[in-house]
Amino acid sequence: MTLQCVDARVSAGGRELLHGITATLRPGRFTAILGPNGAGKSTLLSLLSAQRRPDAGQVLLDGQPVQALGAHALALRRAVMPQESAVAFDFTAREVAELGRYPHRKQPTADEAGIVEQALAATDVAALAPRIFNTLSGGEKARVHLARALAQVWAPLPNDTGGAARWLLLDEPTAALDLAHQHQALRLLRGWAHGQGVGVAAVLHDLNLALRYADDALLLAHGEAASHGPVAEVLTAERIARIWGIDCTPVQTGDGVLQYLFN
Amino acid sequence: MTAPRLAPRTALVLGLALVLLAFMAGAASGAYPIAPAELLRMLAGGVQDTPAQLVFLNIRLPRLLLGVAAGAGLGVAGALMQGLFRNPLADPGLIGISSGAALAAGVVIVLGTQWFPALPHTLGSWTLMLAAFAGGLGVTLLIYLFAQGPSGTHIGLMLLAGVAVNAVAAAGLGYLNFIATDEQLRNIQFWLLGSLGGARWSAVALVAALVAVACTAALAWARPLNAIALGEAQAALLGVNVERVKRAAVVITALAVGAVTATTGIIGFVGLIAPHWVRLVAGPDHRVVLPGAALLGAALVLAADAVARTVAQPAELPLGVLTAFIGGPMFLLMLRRFRSRV
Questions:
Q1: DSSP 8-state secondary structure symbol assigned to residue A87
Q2: Residues from A in contact with B at Cβ < 8 Å
Q3: Residues of B in contact with A73 (CB under 8 A)
């Protein structure tokens, strides 16, 4: 029950983007993928989602190479929220979210329409459902894409015999969201990880959001895994200063969460 | 902005009604007008061996059926191409079918008698049709193969290769024009302008069968095309085999448009406009756009042909001239609407 990179290397345009990453993600945990621009976060996410093949090394889901599983089998149990994605034609927000159910078209659940409505409600876009997607704001679009990703892996597979965990991979899910929706989205993702045993991996830039909501952090720098472990252990003030070049002061919030003030 | 839309079933029933209306109008009008009442009696099988019936069965009916097949083939192909290119302004001509067919037709018209002087006349028109069909398919295959890259078929490259190959085909046709005799020149021009006038039962049956197969096959790709609206990468993440969709869309389009163009010559703008209209009234779901564009395309071609046969009697306007006359301004209206939105 793991999603793993084993010494995965990726090159593009004569430059190596990832120099042999080895990391194991577990279901039921929310992993924040952190690092400065150009560290290889999105590249890593594209490996984990099988969008890209590593030039060397392997990406394994439950011990099997992801490429060997096939696009359809993967789509049944892992959803990806893109950083941004333009939709051609005047599809409504509901129709875009409905596309998340595409992999399940041959074995629909009794409540396909209900799943889409619930997913739209979960990301607070139910009221936008009849509107044309391309006329929504950036943050609203992001929440519709999140609803689409949730709808895709909404329920355990009907013929699941146990062991096939669902995965949510998200590339900067909070980048376009306002303050309240950032917290709402990450609370939702943490809830899915802890409550439903879904494996969640999200590229994040806000370290304080990562500290508040993620269980683990995978810190990338210059195409290598600089640190991987419980988020509060990975994000020390000393490491932040070394990797981002910014000094920070730790503070403890009222509810006991470690946060940083950046000087 | 919400979307006021017709339910898919309502839209398709409306489309079917338009086809029937245009069919009846087309059946009644022409150089030999048939009164609507007589037409209905004839369709009910009540009239035997009248001149009206002879005209209808031997001339007008095959022509109407060719119009239905041509419009449906062009409409469904336009919807496929727009879905594949994720662009409402895409057209089946982009991937070289029409230009390939035109070049091949030009070769047969200008060089055919020179190379095969013994060819009887009837076989000659079949040669022209088969050559145009093969030419369209060949040029499309060339463009498709050119666009193959390490990560599959590159759609943008296909578009650009199409532009280049279309230009070369146009140059080839230009050269043929240059060396053609006056009569051959006239034949080429006539072919390029498009017409349903060459409808004979044998050819009509063949084209109708091919278009029917193409339309049926296209419907199977409606949902994958919806997913491709999210972009190829996102569609692949939803489990869509994007390469298979591309191949299917290109093959279906080439067969449908190739068969239609080989029989009628070039009929422009129908493939561009029919899917766009369906999207306007019924939304962009390909489960309604594909069949809707087939119906609306058929209605458009039938209506245009009825006008072409009546406005300049006893002469007949070339159909392609008429569809371009109507289609061009409509296309501008589409662009205007597009412009106001961006």
A1: -
A2: 49, 51, 71-76, 79-80, 82, 85-92, 95-96, 99-100, 102-103, 105, 130-132, 135, 152
A3: 239
Chain A residue closest in CA terms to B281: A90
The closest CB to that of B223, out of A102, A130, A152, belongs to A102
Q: Which residue spans within A82-215 are E strands per DSSP? A: 167-171, 199-203
**Mean pLDDT within B292-302:** 97
Cβ neighbors of B143 (< 8 A, separation 6 or more) are B95, B96, B158, B161, B162, B165
CB atoms within 10 A of CB B126: 14
All residues of chain A having their beta carbon less than 8 Å from the beta carbon of residue B239 are 71-76, 102-103
Say whether pTM exceeds 0.90. Answer: yes
- Inter-chain CB proximity A85 and B223 less than 8 Å: no
Please give the structure tokens belonging to residue A87: 């939709």
Residues in contact with B288: Cβ distance below 8 Å, sequence separation at least 6, in sequence order: B8, B11, B12, B278, B282
Give the domains, in start order, of chain B with CATH numbers.
8-341 (1.10.3470.10)
Phi, psi of A220 (to 5 degrees): -105, 140
Give the pLDDT band of residue B40 (cuts 50, 70, 90): confident
pLDDT at B330: 84
With DSSP H G I counted as helix, E B as strand and the rest as coil, what are the percentages for chain B, rounded to 5?
Answer: 80, 0, 20
Report the mean per-residue pLDDT for chain A.
94
CB atoms within 10 A of CB A84: 13
Query: B219: Cβ–Cβ under 8 A, 6 or more apart, which residues?
Result: B287, B290, B291
